[in-house]
Amino acid sequence: MFEATCNPILQAELLNRARTDFNIIIGLCVGHDMLFTKFSKAPVATLVVKDRMTGHNPVISLYTRYHRFIV
After folding, report:
1. pTM of the complete model
2. Which single residue of 35, 51, 53, 68 has CA 20 to 30 Å from 26?
C-alpha cells in the first residue's frame, strides 16, 4: 500500500505535481519540515512543529487540558 507519510521529499513532490500555490506544514518533525521546504516549488509556511513534550501531537493543547498535566 502506498503511503507518503514520513517522506517529506515525496510529500513535496506530490504537491508539486498538484501545482499548489502555497503549502502549510502542520506536525512535521523539524528535520522533515526543512526537507519539505527545500523540495517544495510553492512557498511554505510552518504553522505547527511536532514536539516531544506533547507526545508528538502538537495541537493537543488546543483541544484538551493536556498541557496542564505536564510538569
Report:
1. 0.74
2. 68
